[in-house]
């Protein structure tokens, strides 16, 4: 059964229409430069007529752009909002040098993840310069229940799942092939000046070379990075 306008928008004060519009934007993945009307219909489950109406509103406010080739692309409003979202954290000038330092010293990729509901988002990323590496892009959304950084965010966000108490006590988490069988990672929590959890700082690499010794070295470097960052964040509060 296709999801469509089977209920009146006025029934829920227009929320249904907003939900459908946001669902349309959620159809886009990291690799999608543009989607056709047919592909949007397939991914969303909406009728093409519904998509055309929603897309017209999204185009009007800059959330979508329809090219001459007929493909719908994400619009500049999303970039502007994403930039504003990141400026809200005011961490760019502090985090990026630390990520670069971690990459230079470990040879692997370094990231800062934040929690959004039941997911984690890669807010800042410095990928390893190695040709074969664990590669992600900033803004990518991943599960909260797998991976070292996800488990750190869950544990320090009030989680009570198995292992959360140990993560809080140890001050870090290690994952070996949890989300991706080829990837190992180590992550530590980053707290702000008033003690609130900002995110999880992590180093990740291919499991065959990011062995126990290298993970221990990365953990030492991560803790040093957190100490420097928390001193700066405390001074800025």
From TrEMBL:
Keywords: DNA-binding, Transcription, Transcription regulation. Residues 15-76 form the HTH iclR-type domain. Residues 77-235 form the IclR-ED domain. Pfam families: HTH_IclR, IclR_C. InterPro entries: GAF-like_dom_sf, HTH_MetabolicPath_Reg, Tscrpt_reg_IclR_C, Tscrpt_reg_IclR_N, WH-like_DNA-bd_sf, WH_DNA-bd_sf. It comes from Stappia albiluteola. One of its GO terms (molecular function) is DNA-binding transcription factor activity. This is IclR family transcriptional regulator. One of its GO terms (biological process) is negative regulation of DNA-templated transcription.
